[in-house]
Amino acid sequence: MISRQLVLRILAWLLLIALAIVTVGPIEFRPISPLPVQIERATALAIIGFVFALAYPRHILFVGLILFAATAVFEALQVLEPSRHGRVVDLAVKLVGAAFGLGLGWLIMRPRDR
Predict the structure, then answer these.
(1) Which of 18, 21, 28, 69 has its CA 20 to 30 A from that of 48?
(2) pTM of the predicted model, to two decimals?
(3) Could you give the CA distance from residue 114 to residue 108 in angstroms, rounded to a whole number?
(4) The predicted structure's pLDDT at residue 84
């Protein structure tokens, strides 16, 4: 039987791959919602950070470093796609969302980790 931990780890990496596709790919790949775009960005990264924190509760700093670095690289790579533009403010919003999700996941998993 597949463990919950393995499912969370697979989901976390799939979400990161999806983030790469919608961040670096053509603008048509970006999902549209009725929310303001900065809320969408922060929420997406909060969800990904939360899942990574649940998947790797004992490695939260390392996972945070990976998520922050990947997010920065994805934002920088947008300059290669003519329909996209990477901006520092977008990166900042994404990093705040990621930090929030990681922190929330860490707080939830912390009592179980002892």
Answers:
(1) 28
(2) 0.91
(3) 12
(4) 81
